[in-house]
Amino acid sequence: MRFTQHIVFYADNEEDVLALVSNGDDSDESGPTGGRVLRFRDKPGRYVIQADFESWDAAQANNDRPETQDWAARLAEVATSEIKWENLDVLTEF
User: Fold this and answer.
1) Residue 84: which H helix or E strand, with range?
2) Which of 15, 18, 26, 38 could anchor a disulfide with 48, C-beta 3.0 to 4.6 Å?
3) Which domains does the chain have, with CATH numbers?
4) pLDDT over 90 at 36, yes or no
5) What is the distance between the alpha carbons of residues 94 and 76, in angstroms, rounded to a whole number?
6) Who contacts 43 (Cβ-Cβ below 8 Å, separation ≥6)?
7) pLDDT digit string, tens, across residues 3-21
8) 53 CB contacts (<8 Å, ≥6 apart)?
9) What whole-number distance in Å separates Cα of residue 4 and Cα of residue 32?
10) For residue 22, what pLDDT band results from cuts at 50, 70 and 90?
């Protein structure tokens, strides 16, 4: 079953948010298959990074990569709030 993770947080600098995903290393098959950066229209400075994976297991393998741990540390530096991680199974796509 396909899996999506939403990472929800506030940040002051949108360029820093976009930089988090602009130089990612997608050479590992356990990494995300795609994703989006979303900005709340009605909540200035609030963002969602949506990362898509082939499965929950692929997402877990990605979490164990040193590159992912480094990325999470950079995210923590950019975020100005608590970071919320939401784990979602994809039921259907349309």
Assistant:
1) strand 84-89
2) 38
3) 3-89 (3.30.70.100)
4) yes
5) 33
6) none
7) 999 999 999 999 999 999 9
8) 2, 3, 4, 5, 32, 33, 59, 62
9) 9
10) confident
